[in-house]
Amino acid sequence: MRLHLLAAATTLTLTLAGCASSGGLHPDGTPIDPSTLKAERSLAHVQVSAAAWPKQDWWTGLGDPQLDTLITEALHDNPTLAMADARARSAQAEAGAAEAARQPTLNVGASVAEARIPTSVPALGSGHLGAAKYVYGSFNWSLDLWGGQRAAWEAALGQARAAQIDAQAARIELSTNVARAYAQLGYAFAQQDVATAELQRASAARDLTHQRVVAGIDNQIQLKQSDSEVASAQGQKALADRAIDAARSSLSVLLGKGPDRGLDIGRPQLLPPGALIVPSDVPVDLLGHRADLVAARWRVEASAKDIKVAKTEFLPNVNIGALAGLIGLGGGNLFALPNRFYEVAPAISLPIFDGGRRRANLNSKDAQYDYAAAQYNQTLVQALNEVSDDYDALNSLQQQVDAQQRAFDAANDAWKLAEQRYKAGIGSYLEALSVRQELLVAEQRMAALHAQQVDLSVQLIQALGGGYRPQAGDAAVSATSPSTRS
User: Fold this and answer.
1) What is the percent of the chain with per-residue pLDDT over 90, rounded to a whole number?
2) What is the pTM for the complete model shown?
């Protein structure tokens, strides 16, 4: 007897030793602590304010009712948002399926069939047709001893929350894209103004040159040069007209409408650039103000739960099943007591050899966690650098605008003096038109710089989260490292 017990114990020990194991597998990625990302020196020259975060309806601060209408229309009709919402609903459905998998299942069924009873089995009949009647109920419940099913539900829930936040991020991106396209439309109109004025100036200069050639004052070289300037100005005018059409077409796409919708968009007002103010403690606070960062954090957490699910597959599993019903042949009473049957089937399973399938699955989940952590780190680093770079660019642009304003003022004064000289009979109108060209060039550069300021201001609003406000539960998650996970 002792030999039998020893043999059984030895067999059990060898069996357990040969079980599939998760030993040696672990993720390597670690989410970055935002407080370790330094930006104090990069943002030292910017005014600090705790209230500098954008509002949810930040575009109303630009003071253009037409822009307000366009963004509202885009947020209502754009197909990209419908796609994002559909992805969020799909993720929610998957979370619901994962929750349902944790619950016991109860099924009932019944059937009636006509069957010919074989004569080879005298106990069943004599070759006549008979009715086979069957009714049953079954119960099944997989005990979540190690929390794997709960972890699977939490992982699916995390992915669903990330998808919901992605949908909010899509709305923020759409609103900023509409504002940027609208600002580009305003710049296109400014370009058209300059191009029209330059064509008028070049045409007037060409007419004067032609008169001087006829009078023998100038020669054909000057006339051909004037013709070249007129042709060049015509080309710039056509290019400016096309820029307006292109900007309107871009807005039509963003609004989710046909090209005729863009034709109804009037000339934008001159939009003001944003102020150079930085929120307090940007690296840490960005976590709660950027939708893409919040979504990335949820995906890190979901990947951590997936690892737990994969690890529970190496552990024993207990399942409780039960089946009961009634079965009858012929025309008798199906619900008679002798027709009853039942089965109770508790079961335990322990993985031993699976060819490495479970280890490969766990290794894959570890890699997915590393990818999610790296994606979160990249998003965090990129977000902070976007804020710093946009502030730096806006600061540089302001210096360029100040310098260009001085150049514009000087060119404008020169044009006024040239006009005064012409009216006083001291200088020629052709000379005044030449000075006018320098003013138009300065005006074009000023318009370009202003358009860049507005565009960068909108980009900065997007970099600071675009007015994102997390809903209840969105910001409750924290991106943890593998060493802190159970």
Assistant:
1) 33
2) 0.81
CATH number for 106-143+315-350: choose from 3.90.1310.10, 3.50.50.60, 3.30.390.30, 2.20.200.10.
Answer: 2.20.200.10
382: left (phi over 0), alpha (psi -120 to 50) or beta: alpha
How far apart are alpha carbons 73 and 158 in whole angstroms?
Answer: 31
Which residues does 442 contact at the CB level (< 8 Å), separation at least 6? 404, 407, 408, 411, 412
pLDDT digits (tens, 9 = 90+) for 470-479: 776 665 444 4
- Token pair for residue 295? 């979504």
Domain 22-102+147-314+357-484 has CATH 1.20.1600.10: yes
Query: Is-contact 268 244, C-beta < 8 A?
Result: no
412-419's contacts with Cβ under 8 Å and 24+ in sequence apart are 412/439, 412/442, 414/438, 414/439, 415/439
Length of the chain: 486
Structure-token match 């040239």, residue found: 418
Cα–Cα distance measured from residue 440 to residue 419, given in angstroms and rounded to the nearest whole number? 15
The contacts of residue 446 (CB under 8 Å, 6+ apart) are 401, 404, 405, 408
